[in-house]
Design brief:
Order of helices and strands: EHEEEHEHEHHEHEEHEHEHEHEHEHHH
Strand order of the largest sheet: 2-1-5-6-7-8
Structural class: alpha/beta
Number of domains: 2
CATH class of the largest domain: Alpha Beta
Number of helices: 14
Largest sheet: 6 strands, parallel
Shape: globular
CATH topology of the largest domain: Rossmann fold
Strand content: 15-25%
CATH architecture of the largest domain: 3-Layer(aba) Sandwich
Radius of gyration: 20 Å
Length: 348
Amino acid sequence: MRILIATDAWHPQVNGVVRTLTSLARSARSLGVEIQFLTPEGFPSLALPTYPGLRLALPNRGEIARRIQQASPDAIHIATEGPIGWAVRAWCRRLSVAFTTSYTTRFPEYVSARAPIPAAWSYAVLRRFHAAGSAIMVATPSLRSELATRGFASIRSWGRGVDTDLFTPEGPAKLDFPRPMFMSVGRVAVEKNLEAFLSLDLPGTKVVIGDGPARAGLGRKYPGAVFLGEKTGKELAAHVAAADVFVFPSLTDTFGVVQLEALACGTPVAAFPVTGPLDVIADHPIGALDRDLRAACLRALDISRDACREFALAHSWENSARQFISNVTALRSGRVLAPATHMQTVQP
């Protein structure tokens, strides 16, 4: 079986969506399913002044059709609601080809944080986008419930996983900072709510790993914090394993794969009780959730690192891939598009 995933989020971006899709493809291959990607690569793009470092793809109708025909997928999934997603959606609707979608990013909240656009307007656009698909996949029960109350329909669950061979307590980085060490990882941008973490009165050291448009400003405002820039792969895992507490201050993430990555490293999580943390941490003894983030951080110091690791071991990417494939298989149209030639795939 071949599945084509259309996504506006792709390498060299470093975020949860890209890591999820890459891990999904690798695990699906072991299950006998080939996942190909239709990405912004090769299309002209436009810089986004309000989102430094990111560019908006400008796909054209003919090239979108050519790439889909070249892939000859048995099923199509649209992972993002950007220009690539809208272009593939339009192609599917023109040819009456069924497709599935996923809701991975809270665009209404992200847009509202940068421009005076009511979230309700953005949600109306997103409802229209996803309503054309056979089903919309979401990562957590709380997000499923929230979208249902906002008028979204045909919602299916697609959980996330973690690479427990890469993210491990073994070999923590040697970081010469005062303990305890509170660490946050992710894009350094306004929607990640990092100031809620950086403004806390905590003992030891606050460490931020990641890059983004807000890094310079936050570095000047909070000179006592340590900004280590972007880390990936084994280096990232080693840094997370070195932390005493992983702090996840976001109020807008739909899941937060980094939480599972931290737990796989044996690092307990401190977060607000919102969508994502509520689903990952819940009442398991692996983290602390509190509207008082400082209180959560301090409570997390007493949590068993062995319990965190044990919890993560039960959340494999293979299980996530099985759920995704099951959703797509149940809803695919069965349409065969054209003889296949290879396009971009993810190598293990």
